[in-house]
Design goal:
The complex is a heterodimer of chains A (412) and B (221). With 412 residues, chain A is an alpha+beta fold. Chain A contains 14 helices and 13 strands. In chain A, strand 2 and strand 3 form a beta hairpin. In chain A, helix 2 packs antiparallel against helix 10 and helix 2 packs across helix 12. The longest helix of chain A has 37 residues. Chain B contains seven helices and ten strands. Chain B has 221 residues and is of the alpha/beta class. Chain B has a six-stranded mixed sheet with strand order 6-7-8-3-9-10, sandwiched between helices. Classes of the chains: A alpha+beta (412), B alpha/beta (221).
Chain lengths: 412, 221
Amino acid sequence: MLKNSLKLALKVLARRKVFTAISLAGIALTLAVLMVATAILDNVLAARAPQSRLDRILVVETVRQHGPNSIWNANPGRGFLERTVRNLPGAERVALFTELATVVVYDGARRIELPYRRADAEYWKVLDFHFLEGGPFNASDEASNRSVVVITEDVRQKLFGGAAALGKFVNVGGEPHRVVGVVPSVPFTQAVAYSTLWTPLGPPTDQELKAVFGPLKGAVLARSQRDIPRIQSEFGTRVARVPLFQPQDYNEIHAGLDTTFDGIARHLMGDQFGDRSPTALRVAFLVLALLFMTLPALNLVTLNLSRILERASEVGVRKAFGAPRRMLIGQFVLENVVLTILGGLAAFALAFILLRAFASLEFLPGAHFDLNLRIFAWGMLIAAFFGIFSGLYPAWKMSRLDPVNALRGGAM
Amino acid sequence: MITLTNIDKVYRTERVETLALQNINLDIADGEFVSVMGPSGCGKSTLLNLIGLLDRPTNGKLLLDGQHINGAADRSLARMRNEKLGFVFQSFHLVPDLTVLDNVEIPLLYRKMGSAERRTRSLAALDRVGLSSRVHHFPTQLSGGQQQRVAVARAIVGRPSIVLADEPTGNLDSAMGDEIMGILEELNEKDGTTVVMVTHDDRFAQRTSRTIRLFDGRQVA
Protein backbone atom coordinates (compact mmCIF):
# COMPACT_ATOMS: atom_id res chain seq x y z
CA MET A 1 0.00 0.00 0.00
CA LEU A 2 2.78 2.41 1.02
CA LYS A 3 4.77 1.57 -2.10
CA ASN A 4 1.67 2.07 -4.21
CA SER A 5 0.92 5.44 -2.58
CA LEU A 6 4.53 6.56 -3.01
CA LYS A 7 4.48 5.58 -6.66
CA LEU A 8 1.23 7.44 -7.18
CA ALA A 9 2.54 10.49 -5.30
CA LEU A 10 5.58 10.74 -7.58
CA LYS A 11 3.47 10.22 -10.71
CA VAL A 12 0.96 12.87 -9.67
CA LEU A 13 3.75 15.35 -8.99
CA ALA A 14 5.44 14.57 -12.30
CA ARG A 15 2.18 14.99 -14.23
CA ARG A 16 1.19 18.32 -12.64
CA LYS A 17 4.40 20.12 -13.47
CA VAL A 18 3.23 23.71 -12.90
CA PHE A 19 1.63 22.92 -9.55
CA THR A 20 4.71 20.96 -8.49
CA ALA A 21 7.10 23.73 -9.58
CA ILE A 22 5.15 26.47 -7.75
CA SER A 23 4.76 24.39 -4.63
CA LEU A 24 8.38 23.29 -4.62
CA ALA A 25 9.63 26.87 -5.05
CA GLY A 26 7.56 28.09 -2.09
CA ILE A 27 8.51 25.16 0.10
CA ALA A 28 12.19 25.30 -0.85
CA LEU A 29 12.47 29.03 -0.11
CA THR A 30 10.75 28.72 3.26
CA LEU A 31 12.72 25.71 4.32
CA ALA A 32 16.01 27.16 3.04
CA VAL A 33 15.57 30.17 5.32
CA LEU A 34 14.74 27.88 8.23
CA MET A 35 17.76 25.70 7.44
CA VAL A 36 20.07 28.72 7.31
CA ALA A 37 18.68 29.77 10.70
CA THR A 38 19.18 26.22 11.99
CA ALA A 39 22.75 26.16 10.65
CA ILE A 40 23.53 29.41 12.46
CA LEU A 41 21.93 28.14 15.68
CA ASP A 42 23.77 24.86 15.29
CA ASN A 43 27.04 26.73 14.98
CA VAL A 44 26.23 28.71 18.12
CA LEU A 45 24.89 25.89 20.25
CA ALA A 46 26.53 22.69 19.06
CA ALA A 47 29.73 21.41 20.62
CA ARG A 48 32.48 21.64 18.02
CA ALA A 49 36.17 22.51 18.19
CA PRO A 50 37.47 24.62 19.79
CA GLN A 51 34.33 24.51 21.94
CA SER A 52 34.03 20.72 21.93
CA ARG A 53 33.20 20.70 25.64
CA LEU A 54 30.47 23.28 25.25
CA ASP A 55 27.94 21.08 27.00
CA ARG A 56 30.09 21.31 30.15
CA ILE A 57 31.11 24.97 29.88
CA LEU A 58 29.34 27.51 32.05
CA VAL A 59 30.00 31.20 31.54
CA VAL A 60 29.47 34.23 33.73
CA GLU A 61 29.42 37.34 31.59
CA THR A 62 27.28 39.86 33.42
CA VAL A 63 26.95 41.13 36.95
CA ARG A 64 23.94 43.20 37.86
CA GLN A 65 23.56 45.36 40.97
CA HIS A 66 20.13 46.67 41.92
CA GLY A 67 19.48 49.71 44.05
CA PRO A 68 16.37 51.69 44.91
CA ASN A 69 17.09 54.17 42.15
CA SER A 70 19.40 52.47 39.72
CA ILE A 71 20.73 49.29 38.15
CA TRP A 72 24.38 48.68 37.29
CA ASN A 73 24.88 46.05 34.67
CA ALA A 74 28.37 45.20 33.39
CA ASN A 75 30.95 42.50 32.88
CA PRO A 76 32.41 40.97 36.03
CA GLY A 77 35.71 42.21 37.43
CA ARG A 78 38.61 40.12 38.65
CA GLY A 79 37.60 40.49 42.30
CA PHE A 80 34.10 39.17 41.64
CA LEU A 81 35.39 36.20 39.65
CA GLU A 82 38.11 35.26 42.17
CA ARG A 83 35.44 35.15 44.89
CA THR A 84 32.80 33.25 42.96
CA VAL A 85 34.23 30.84 40.38
CA ARG A 86 37.44 29.47 41.89
CA ASN A 87 37.34 25.92 43.33
CA LEU A 88 33.64 25.35 42.78
CA PRO A 89 32.63 21.78 43.75
CA GLY A 90 32.26 19.69 40.60
CA ALA A 91 34.34 22.09 38.48
CA GLU A 92 37.34 20.80 36.54
CA ARG A 93 38.85 24.07 35.39
CA VAL A 94 38.25 27.82 35.44
CA ALA A 95 39.33 30.23 32.73
CA LEU A 96 39.26 34.02 32.84
CA PHE A 97 39.32 36.12 29.72
CA THR A 98 38.37 39.60 28.64
CA GLU A 99 35.31 40.66 26.73
CA LEU A 100 35.98 40.88 23.01
CA ALA A 101 37.60 44.21 22.09
CA THR A 102 39.13 45.72 18.99
CA VAL A 103 42.82 46.30 18.81
CA VAL A 104 44.86 48.14 16.26
CA VAL A 105 47.60 46.08 14.68
CA TYR A 106 50.26 47.72 12.57
CA ASP A 107 51.69 46.03 9.57
CA GLY A 108 54.42 48.53 8.74
CA ALA A 109 52.42 51.67 8.01
CA ARG A 110 49.21 49.70 7.46
CA ARG A 111 46.70 49.97 10.31
CA ILE A 112 44.41 46.97 10.78
CA GLU A 113 41.63 46.69 13.35
CA LEU A 114 41.13 43.19 14.69
CA PRO A 115 38.96 41.46 17.32
CA TYR A 116 41.10 40.74 20.34
CA ARG A 117 41.04 39.17 23.80
CA ARG A 118 43.30 38.70 26.76
CA ALA A 119 43.08 35.32 28.41
CA ASP A 120 44.71 33.28 31.14
CA ALA A 121 46.62 30.07 30.51
CA GLU A 122 43.64 27.92 31.59
CA TYR A 123 41.61 29.35 28.69
CA TRP A 124 43.55 27.07 26.33
CA LYS A 125 42.70 24.05 28.47
CA VAL A 126 39.00 24.76 28.81
CA LEU A 127 38.83 25.12 25.03
CA ASP A 128 40.47 22.69 22.60
CA PHE A 129 42.20 24.69 19.90
CA HIS A 130 44.12 22.74 17.33
CA PHE A 131 47.37 24.64 16.86
CA LEU A 132 48.61 24.99 13.30
CA GLU A 133 51.90 26.36 14.61
CA GLY A 134 53.41 26.51 18.09
CA GLY A 135 51.13 26.34 21.10
CA PRO A 136 49.35 28.45 23.68
CA PHE A 137 51.02 30.82 26.10
CA ASN A 138 51.42 29.27 29.56
CA ALA A 139 51.09 30.21 33.24
CA SER A 140 54.70 31.45 33.32
CA ASP A 141 54.05 33.77 30.32
CA GLU A 142 51.01 35.06 32.17
CA ALA A 143 52.76 35.51 35.52
CA SER A 144 55.61 37.37 33.86
CA ASN A 145 53.21 39.30 31.64
CA ARG A 146 55.29 38.43 28.58
CA SER A 147 54.48 40.12 25.30
CA VAL A 148 53.43 37.03 23.42
CA VAL A 149 50.44 36.47 21.16
CA VAL A 150 48.42 33.67 19.61
CA ILE A 151 46.93 34.55 16.22
CA THR A 152 44.51 32.95 13.80
CA GLU A 153 45.42 31.76 10.33
CA ASP A 154 43.42 34.72 8.89
CA VAL A 155 45.67 37.14 10.75
CA ARG A 156 48.71 35.16 9.63
CA GLN A 157 47.48 35.52 6.06
CA LYS A 158 46.89 39.26 6.48
CA LEU A 159 50.18 40.03 8.19
CA PHE A 160 52.59 37.42 6.82
CA GLY A 161 50.98 36.40 3.56
CA GLY A 162 50.31 32.92 4.93
CA ALA A 163 54.00 32.18 5.68
CA ALA A 164 55.05 30.61 9.01
CA ALA A 165 54.50 33.16 11.78
CA LEU A 166 56.06 31.46 14.78
CA GLY A 167 58.65 33.73 16.48
CA LYS A 168 57.69 36.70 14.33
CA PHE A 169 56.44 39.90 15.93
CA VAL A 170 53.02 41.51 15.72
CA ASN A 171 52.58 45.11 16.76
CA VAL A 172 49.54 44.92 19.06
CA GLY A 173 48.34 48.33 20.26
CA GLY A 174 51.72 49.85 19.63
CA GLU A 175 53.76 47.15 21.38
CA PRO A 176 55.56 44.25 19.66
CA HIS A 177 54.32 40.79 20.64
CA ARG A 178 56.06 37.54 19.67
CA VAL A 179 53.83 34.96 17.99
CA VAL A 180 53.83 31.72 20.00
CA GLY A 181 50.93 29.98 18.30
CA VAL A 182 48.64 29.99 15.28
CA VAL A 183 45.13 28.52 15.39
CA PRO A 184 42.44 28.04 12.74
CA SER A 185 39.99 30.92 12.40
CA VAL A 186 37.03 30.78 14.74
CA PRO A 187 33.46 31.67 13.69
CA PHE A 188 32.04 34.62 15.60
CA THR A 189 29.17 32.41 16.71
CA GLN A 190 31.51 30.57 19.07
CA ALA A 191 31.13 33.13 21.82
CA VAL A 192 33.83 31.90 24.21
CA ALA A 193 36.45 31.03 21.61
CA TYR A 194 35.98 33.81 19.09
CA SER A 195 38.83 36.25 18.57
CA THR A 196 41.70 36.74 16.14
CA LEU A 197 44.46 37.65 18.60
CA TRP A 198 45.00 36.50 22.16
CA THR A 199 47.54 37.88 24.63
CA PRO A 200 48.08 36.87 28.29
CA LEU A 201 45.70 38.29 30.85
CA GLY A 202 48.62 39.06 33.16
CA PRO A 203 48.71 39.09 36.98
CA PRO A 204 45.96 41.17 38.60
CA THR A 205 46.67 44.42 40.42
CA ASP A 206 45.42 44.96 43.97
CA GLN A 207 42.76 47.27 42.59
CA GLU A 208 41.59 44.62 40.11
CA LEU A 209 41.39 42.02 42.85
CA LYS A 210 38.74 44.13 44.56
CA ALA A 211 36.72 44.97 41.49
CA VAL A 212 33.12 43.72 41.21
CA PHE A 213 32.84 45.07 37.69
CA GLY A 214 35.46 44.91 35.00
CA PRO A 215 36.18 43.79 31.43
CA LEU A 216 36.18 40.06 32.12
CA LYS A 217 34.23 36.88 31.66
CA GLY A 218 34.67 33.61 33.49
CA ALA A 219 34.27 30.11 32.10
CA VAL A 220 33.88 27.09 34.34
CA LEU A 221 34.39 23.62 32.91
CA ALA A 222 32.22 21.17 34.83
CA ARG A 223 33.51 17.64 35.38
CA SER A 224 30.27 16.31 33.91
CA GLN A 225 26.85 17.66 32.98
CA ARG A 226 25.51 16.15 36.19
CA ASP A 227 27.72 18.56 38.17
CA ILE A 228 26.21 21.66 36.57
CA PRO A 229 23.27 22.19 39.00
CA ARG A 230 25.60 21.82 42.00
CA ILE A 231 28.09 24.30 40.51
CA GLN A 232 25.34 26.80 39.73
CA SER A 233 23.88 26.48 43.20
CA GLU A 234 27.22 27.08 44.93
CA PHE A 235 27.94 29.97 42.57
CA GLY A 236 24.59 31.55 43.52
CA THR A 237 25.44 31.24 47.22
CA ARG A 238 28.83 32.86 46.67
CA VAL A 239 27.41 35.71 44.59
CA ALA A 240 25.08 36.65 47.44
CA ARG A 241 28.13 37.08 49.67
CA VAL A 242 30.13 39.32 47.33
CA PRO A 243 30.53 42.81 48.85
CA LEU A 244 28.56 45.29 46.79
CA PHE A 245 30.20 48.03 44.77
CA GLN A 246 28.99 51.37 46.16
CA PRO A 247 26.80 49.76 48.84
CA GLN A 248 25.25 53.08 49.72
CA ASP A 249 23.40 53.04 46.33
CA TYR A 250 22.75 49.29 45.81
CA ASN A 251 21.33 46.54 47.92
CA GLU A 252 21.26 43.46 45.66
CA ILE A 253 23.70 41.66 43.37
CA HIS A 254 22.86 39.06 40.71
CA ALA A 255 24.84 37.01 38.23
CA GLY A 256 24.23 33.84 36.27
CA LEU A 257 26.66 31.03 35.54
CA ASP A 258 24.98 29.83 32.40
CA THR A 259 25.23 27.27 29.65
CA THR A 260 25.49 28.84 26.19
CA PHE A 261 21.79 28.58 25.44
CA ASP A 262 20.77 29.86 28.87
CA GLY A 263 23.22 32.75 28.49
CA ILE A 264 21.76 33.71 25.11
CA ALA A 265 18.25 33.41 26.52
CA ARG A 266 19.11 35.58 29.52
CA HIS A 267 20.69 38.14 27.20
CA LEU A 268 17.93 38.20 24.55
CA MET A 269 15.12 38.22 27.11
CA GLY A 270 16.83 40.97 29.13
CA ASP A 271 16.68 38.45 32.01
CA GLN A 272 13.12 39.56 32.56
CA PHE A 273 11.98 35.95 32.91
CA GLY A 274 14.79 35.06 35.34
CA ASP A 275 15.38 31.31 35.39
CA ARG A 276 12.53 30.81 32.93
CA SER A 277 14.35 32.80 30.20
CA PRO A 278 15.58 29.65 28.37
CA THR A 279 12.05 28.22 28.25
CA ALA A 280 10.71 31.57 27.08
CA LEU A 281 13.33 31.67 24.31
CA ARG A 282 12.53 28.11 23.20
CA VAL A 283 8.84 29.03 22.98
CA ALA A 284 9.71 32.23 21.10
CA PHE A 285 11.82 30.27 18.57
CA LEU A 286 9.05 27.74 18.09
CA VAL A 287 6.36 30.40 17.63
CA LEU A 288 8.56 32.29 15.16
CA ALA A 289 9.27 29.15 13.14
CA LEU A 290 5.58 28.25 13.12
CA LEU A 291 4.55 31.75 12.07
CA PHE A 292 7.18 31.73 9.38
CA MET A 293 5.84 28.43 8.05
CA THR A 294 2.18 29.39 8.33
CA LEU A 295 1.94 31.61 5.25
CA PRO A 296 3.51 29.19 2.77
CA ALA A 297 1.61 26.37 4.46
CA LEU A 298 -1.68 28.21 3.91
CA ASN A 299 -0.68 28.78 0.31
CA LEU A 300 0.00 25.08 -0.06
CA VAL A 301 -3.34 24.28 1.59
CA THR A 302 -5.12 26.38 -1.06
CA LEU A 303 -3.18 24.75 -3.88
CA ASN A 304 -3.91 21.34 -2.43
CA LEU A 305 -7.62 22.05 -2.15
CA SER A 306 -7.82 22.93 -5.82
CA ARG A 307 -5.73 19.86 -6.63
CA ILE A 308 -8.23 17.68 -4.78
CA LEU A 309 -11.09 19.01 -6.90
CA GLU A 310 -9.16 17.97 -9.99
CA ARG A 311 -8.92 14.49 -8.51
CA ALA A 312 -12.49 14.25 -7.24
CA SER A 313 -13.27 11.42 -9.63
CA GLU A 314 -10.32 9.39 -8.31
CA VAL A 315 -11.51 9.99 -4.75
CA GLY A 316 -15.00 8.84 -5.78
CA VAL A 317 -13.63 5.67 -7.36
CA ARG A 318 -11.50 4.85 -4.34
CA LYS A 319 -14.45 5.40 -2.04
CA ALA A 320 -16.70 3.27 -4.24
CA PHE A 321 -14.20 0.46 -4.02
CA GLY A 322 -14.11 0.65 -0.25
CA ALA A 323 -11.25 3.01 0.67
CA PRO A 324 -11.67 3.91 4.33
CA ARG A 325 -11.36 7.62 5.19
CA ARG A 326 -8.17 7.22 7.19
CA MET A 327 -6.44 5.52 4.24
CA LEU A 328 -7.47 8.32 1.88
CA ILE A 329 -6.17 10.88 4.38
CA GLY A 330 -2.96 8.87 4.73
CA GLN A 331 -2.48 8.72 0.96
CA PHE A 332 -2.97 12.42 0.43
CA VAL A 333 -0.82 13.45 3.41
CA LEU A 334 1.90 11.10 2.16
CA GLU A 335 1.76 12.76 -1.27
CA ASN A 336 2.17 16.11 0.42
CA VAL A 337 5.01 14.89 2.60
CA VAL A 338 6.78 13.54 -0.50
CA LEU A 339 6.38 16.99 -2.06
CA THR A 340 7.72 18.81 0.98
CA ILE A 341 10.60 16.35 1.42
CA LEU A 342 11.57 17.05 -2.21
CA GLY A 343 11.24 20.75 -1.33
CA GLY A 344 13.43 20.06 1.70
CA LEU A 345 16.13 18.54 -0.48
CA ALA A 346 15.99 21.55 -2.80
CA ALA A 347 16.07 23.80 0.28
CA PHE A 348 19.19 22.02 1.51
CA ALA A 349 20.93 22.79 -1.76
CA LEU A 350 19.67 26.39 -1.63
CA ALA A 351 20.78 26.78 1.99
CA PHE A 352 24.22 25.48 1.02
CA ILE A 353 24.48 28.17 -1.68
CA LEU A 354 23.21 30.88 0.71
CA LEU A 355 25.70 29.93 3.42
CA ARG A 356 28.54 29.86 0.91
CA ALA A 357 27.45 33.35 -0.18
CA PHE A 358 27.49 34.48 3.47
CA ALA A 359 31.01 33.17 3.87
CA SER A 360 32.29 34.81 0.69
CA LEU A 361 30.69 38.20 1.48
CA GLU A 362 32.46 38.26 4.86
CA PHE A 363 30.18 40.91 6.29
CA LEU A 364 29.97 38.76 9.38
CA PRO A 365 33.41 37.85 10.72
CA GLY A 366 34.18 34.16 10.51
CA ALA A 367 30.68 33.32 9.27
CA HIS A 368 31.66 29.93 7.92
CA PHE A 369 28.56 27.94 8.71
CA ASP A 370 28.57 24.45 7.46
CA LEU A 371 25.64 22.14 6.79
CA ASN A 372 26.02 18.79 8.47
CA LEU A 373 24.01 15.62 8.93
CA ARG A 374 22.32 17.02 12.04
CA ILE A 375 21.08 20.11 10.18
CA PHE A 376 20.02 17.89 7.29
CA ALA A 377 18.04 15.72 9.71
CA TRP A 378 16.45 18.79 11.31
CA GLY A 379 15.62 20.14 7.84
CA MET A 380 13.95 16.91 6.81
CA LEU A 381 12.03 16.84 10.08
CA ILE A 382 10.84 20.41 9.50
CA ALA A 383 9.90 19.47 5.92
CA ALA A 384 7.92 16.44 7.07
CA PHE A 385 6.15 18.51 9.71
CA PHE A 386 5.41 21.17 7.07
CA GLY A 387 4.03 18.44 4.78
CA ILE A 388 1.74 17.01 7.44
CA PHE A 389 0.70 20.48 8.63
CA SER A 390 -0.27 21.69 5.14
CA GLY A 391 -1.66 18.36 3.93
CA LEU A 392 -3.88 17.36 6.78
CA TYR A 393 -6.75 19.80 6.30
CA PRO A 394 -7.09 19.28 2.50
CA ALA A 395 -6.83 15.52 3.06
CA TRP A 396 -9.53 15.66 5.71
CA LYS A 397 -11.76 17.70 3.36
CA MET A 398 -11.12 15.23 0.57
CA SER A 399 -11.97 12.24 2.74
CA ARG A 400 -15.36 13.82 3.47
CA LEU A 401 -16.27 14.13 -0.20
CA ASP A 402 -19.58 12.48 -0.93
CA PRO A 403 -18.69 9.60 -3.31
CA VAL A 404 -21.64 10.23 -5.64
CA ASN A 405 -20.71 13.90 -6.02
CA ALA A 406 -17.05 13.04 -6.25
CA LEU A 407 -17.71 10.65 -9.13
CA ARG A 408 -19.49 13.48 -10.92
CA GLY A 409 -16.32 15.56 -10.35
CA GLY A 410 -18.36 17.58 -7.89
CA ALA A 411 -17.75 20.21 -5.25
CA MET A 412 -16.73 19.73 -1.65
CA MET B 1 -29.84 -11.05 -2.16
CA ILE B 2 -30.76 -7.39 -2.42
CA THR B 3 -34.02 -6.25 -0.82
CA LEU B 4 -35.48 -2.74 -1.03
CA THR B 5 -38.67 -2.07 0.93
CA ASN B 6 -40.64 1.19 0.62
CA ILE B 7 -37.55 3.10 -0.42
CA ASP B 8 -37.78 6.88 -0.89
CA LYS B 9 -34.93 9.15 -1.80
CA VAL B 10 -35.40 12.87 -1.38
CA TYR B 11 -32.78 15.48 -2.25
CA ARG B 12 -33.24 18.64 -0.23
CA THR B 13 -31.71 22.03 -0.76
CA GLU B 14 -32.68 25.23 1.08
CA ARG B 15 -35.51 25.97 -1.33
CA VAL B 16 -36.24 22.84 -3.33
CA GLU B 17 -37.15 19.31 -2.41
CA THR B 18 -36.76 16.71 -5.16
CA LEU B 19 -38.28 13.28 -4.83
CA ALA B 20 -35.83 11.14 -6.79
CA LEU B 21 -37.27 7.74 -5.83
CA GLN B 22 -40.65 6.96 -4.39
CA ASN B 23 -41.83 3.78 -2.70
CA ILE B 24 -39.52 1.36 -4.42
CA ASN B 25 -39.99 -2.29 -3.51
CA LEU B 26 -37.58 -4.67 -5.09
CA ASP B 27 -36.00 -8.07 -4.56
CA ILE B 28 -32.99 -9.09 -6.60
CA ALA B 29 -31.99 -12.71 -6.11
CA ASP B 30 -28.44 -14.01 -6.07
CA GLY B 31 -27.22 -14.70 -9.59
CA GLU B 32 -29.81 -12.55 -11.35
CA PHE B 33 -28.92 -10.26 -14.24
CA VAL B 34 -31.23 -7.28 -13.90
CA SER B 35 -31.40 -4.25 -16.12
CA VAL B 36 -32.82 -0.89 -15.03
CA MET B 37 -34.39 1.28 -17.70
CA GLY B 38 -36.23 4.55 -17.90
CA PRO B 39 -35.93 8.07 -19.31
CA SER B 40 -33.20 10.45 -18.15
CA GLY B 41 -33.77 11.78 -14.66
CA CYS B 42 -36.16 9.00 -13.64
CA GLY B 43 -33.90 7.85 -10.80
CA LYS B 44 -31.99 4.93 -12.38
CA SER B 45 -28.57 6.05 -11.19
CA THR B 46 -29.97 7.03 -7.79
CA LEU B 47 -31.31 3.50 -7.42
CA LEU B 48 -27.95 2.04 -8.39
CA ASN B 49 -26.16 4.35 -5.93
CA LEU B 50 -28.45 3.17 -3.13
CA ILE B 51 -27.88 -0.50 -3.97
CA GLY B 52 -24.15 0.28 -4.24
CA LEU B 53 -24.14 1.82 -0.74
CA LEU B 54 -22.79 5.06 -2.15
CA ASP B 55 -25.88 6.89 -0.91
CA ARG B 56 -28.45 6.33 1.83
CA PRO B 57 -32.23 6.17 1.39
CA THR B 58 -34.36 8.88 2.99
CA ASN B 59 -37.02 6.35 4.00
CA GLY B 60 -37.42 2.61 3.71
CA LYS B 61 -35.34 -0.45 4.39
CA LEU B 62 -32.38 -1.72 2.40
CA LEU B 63 -30.89 -5.15 3.00
CA LEU B 64 -27.80 -6.55 1.36
CA ASP B 65 -27.22 -10.25 1.96
CA GLY B 66 -29.65 -9.97 4.85
CA GLN B 67 -27.71 -7.11 6.45
CA HIS B 68 -29.53 -3.85 7.24
CA ILE B 69 -27.55 -0.97 5.87
CA ASN B 70 -29.75 1.97 6.92
CA GLY B 71 -27.96 2.75 10.18
CA ALA B 72 -24.56 1.27 9.28
CA ALA B 73 -21.49 3.40 9.91
CA ASP B 74 -19.53 4.79 6.95
CA ARG B 75 -16.68 2.44 7.83
CA SER B 76 -18.76 -0.71 7.62
CA LEU B 77 -20.39 0.51 4.39
CA ALA B 78 -16.90 1.00 2.94
CA ARG B 79 -15.98 -2.54 3.97
CA MET B 80 -19.17 -3.96 2.42
CA ARG B 81 -18.52 -2.09 -0.82
CA ASN B 82 -15.00 -3.45 -0.88
CA GLU B 83 -15.95 -7.06 -0.21
CA LYS B 84 -19.33 -7.50 -1.88
CA LEU B 85 -19.63 -4.93 -4.67
CA GLY B 86 -17.93 -4.02 -7.91
CA PHE B 87 -18.71 -0.91 -9.96
CA VAL B 88 -18.53 -0.17 -13.67
CA PHE B 89 -19.20 3.45 -14.63
CA GLN B 90 -20.29 4.95 -17.93
CA SER B 91 -17.22 7.20 -18.11
CA PHE B 92 -14.82 4.46 -16.91
CA HIS B 93 -13.32 6.57 -14.06
CA LEU B 94 -9.83 5.14 -14.42
CA VAL B 95 -7.03 6.97 -12.58
CA PRO B 96 -4.96 8.57 -15.35
CA ASP B 97 -1.71 8.55 -13.33
CA LEU B 98 -1.79 4.80 -12.84
CA THR B 99 -1.06 1.99 -15.29
CA VAL B 100 -3.76 -0.46 -16.28
CA LEU B 101 -2.44 -2.97 -13.75
CA ASP B 102 -2.31 -0.40 -10.92
CA ASN B 103 -5.85 0.72 -11.72
CA VAL B 104 -7.13 -2.84 -11.50
CA GLU B 105 -5.35 -3.33 -8.17
CA ILE B 106 -7.22 -0.46 -6.47
CA PRO B 107 -9.98 -2.51 -4.72
CA LEU B 108 -7.37 -4.94 -3.38
CA LEU B 109 -5.34 -2.11 -1.78
CA TYR B 110 -8.04 -1.82 0.85
CA ARG B 111 -7.81 -5.46 1.86
CA LYS B 112 -5.24 -7.28 3.92
CA MET B 113 -3.39 -8.76 0.97
CA GLY B 114 0.26 -9.01 -0.03
CA SER B 115 1.48 -7.25 -3.16
CA ALA B 116 2.31 -10.56 -4.92
CA GLU B 117 -1.24 -11.82 -4.51
CA ARG B 118 -2.65 -8.46 -5.58
CA ARG B 119 -0.57 -8.63 -8.72
CA THR B 120 -1.54 -12.22 -9.52
CA ARG B 121 -5.25 -11.53 -9.09
CA SER B 122 -5.10 -8.31 -11.10
CA LEU B 123 -3.30 -10.03 -13.96
CA ALA B 124 -5.91 -12.81 -13.90
CA ALA B 125 -8.74 -10.23 -14.04
CA LEU B 126 -7.06 -8.48 -16.98
CA ASP B 127 -6.57 -11.82 -18.72
CA ARG B 128 -10.26 -12.48 -18.34
CA VAL B 129 -11.20 -9.28 -20.15
CA GLY B 130 -8.55 -9.93 -22.81
CA LEU B 131 -6.13 -7.17 -21.88
CA SER B 132 -3.06 -9.13 -20.78
CA SER B 133 -0.96 -7.38 -23.37
CA ARG B 134 -1.81 -3.89 -22.10
CA VAL B 135 -1.01 -4.15 -18.39
CA HIS B 136 1.70 -1.48 -18.39
CA HIS B 137 -0.18 0.99 -20.58
CA PHE B 138 -1.80 4.11 -19.20
CA PRO B 139 -5.56 4.64 -19.65
CA THR B 140 -5.03 7.43 -22.19
CA GLN B 141 -3.14 4.98 -24.42
CA LEU B 142 -6.23 2.76 -24.74
CA SER B 143 -9.43 2.93 -26.80
CA GLY B 144 -12.79 3.55 -25.08
CA GLY B 145 -13.69 -0.14 -25.27
CA GLN B 146 -10.35 -1.17 -23.81
CA GLN B 147 -10.72 1.38 -20.99
CA GLN B 148 -14.15 -0.04 -20.12
CA ARG B 149 -12.69 -3.54 -20.13
CA VAL B 150 -10.06 -2.33 -17.62
CA ALA B 151 -12.93 -0.91 -15.55
CA VAL B 152 -14.69 -4.30 -15.66
CA ALA B 153 -11.45 -6.03 -14.61
CA ARG B 154 -11.23 -3.57 -11.69
CA ALA B 155 -14.85 -4.34 -10.76
CA ILE B 156 -14.31 -8.11 -10.66
CA VAL B 157 -10.78 -8.32 -9.26
CA GLY B 158 -12.09 -8.48 -5.70
CA ARG B 159 -14.49 -11.32 -6.69
CA PRO B 160 -17.60 -9.45 -5.57
CA SER B 161 -20.96 -11.17 -5.45
CA ILE B 162 -22.67 -8.16 -7.07
CA VAL B 163 -21.52 -6.01 -10.01
CA LEU B 164 -23.30 -2.70 -10.52
CA ALA B 165 -22.90 -1.20 -13.96
CA ASP B 166 -24.15 2.31 -14.66
CA GLU B 167 -24.64 2.57 -18.43
CA PRO B 168 -21.43 0.62 -19.11
CA THR B 169 -22.00 0.76 -22.86
CA GLY B 170 -23.19 4.37 -22.96
CA ASN B 171 -19.91 5.81 -24.21
CA LEU B 172 -19.08 2.99 -26.60
CA ASP B 173 -20.01 2.12 -30.17
CA SER B 174 -22.26 -0.91 -30.68
CA ALA B 175 -19.45 -3.38 -31.36
CA MET B 176 -17.56 -2.37 -28.25
CA GLY B 177 -20.84 -2.26 -26.30
CA ASP B 178 -21.48 -5.85 -27.38
CA GLU B 179 -18.04 -6.85 -26.12
CA ILE B 180 -18.68 -5.38 -22.67
CA MET B 181 -22.16 -6.88 -22.54
CA GLY B 182 -20.63 -10.26 -23.42
CA ILE B 183 -18.18 -10.00 -20.53
CA LEU B 184 -20.97 -9.12 -18.08
CA GLU B 185 -23.09 -12.02 -19.35
CA GLU B 186 -20.19 -14.42 -18.94
CA LEU B 187 -19.62 -13.16 -15.40
CA ASN B 188 -23.25 -13.77 -14.58
CA GLU B 189 -23.51 -17.18 -16.23
CA LYS B 190 -20.14 -18.70 -15.32
CA ASP B 191 -19.49 -17.16 -11.90
CA GLY B 192 -23.07 -16.63 -10.77
CA THR B 193 -22.32 -12.98 -10.13
CA THR B 194 -25.42 -10.84 -9.62
CA VAL B 195 -25.39 -8.01 -12.15
CA VAL B 196 -27.52 -4.88 -11.96
CA MET B 197 -27.11 -2.74 -15.06
CA VAL B 198 -28.58 0.64 -15.88
CA THR B 199 -29.02 1.01 -19.61
CA HIS B 200 -30.79 3.06 -22.22
CA ASP B 201 -30.34 0.38 -24.83
CA ASP B 202 -33.29 -1.97 -25.28
CA ARG B 203 -31.11 -4.51 -27.12
CA PHE B 204 -28.95 -5.01 -24.05
CA ALA B 205 -31.92 -4.94 -21.66
CA GLN B 206 -33.52 -7.78 -23.58
CA ARG B 207 -30.46 -9.93 -22.97
CA THR B 208 -30.95 -9.68 -19.16
CA SER B 209 -33.24 -11.93 -17.13
CA ARG B 210 -35.43 -9.10 -15.87
CA THR B 211 -35.93 -5.40 -16.56
CA ILE B 212 -36.99 -2.89 -13.93
CA ARG B 213 -38.59 0.18 -15.42
CA LEU B 214 -38.65 3.51 -13.64
CA PHE B 215 -40.61 6.64 -14.46
CA ASP B 216 -40.44 9.85 -12.44
CA GLY B 217 -38.91 8.00 -9.52
CA ARG B 218 -41.56 5.31 -9.45
CA GLN B 219 -41.20 1.66 -10.38
CA VAL B 220 -43.57 1.02 -13.26
CA ALA B 221 -42.52 -2.48 -14.18
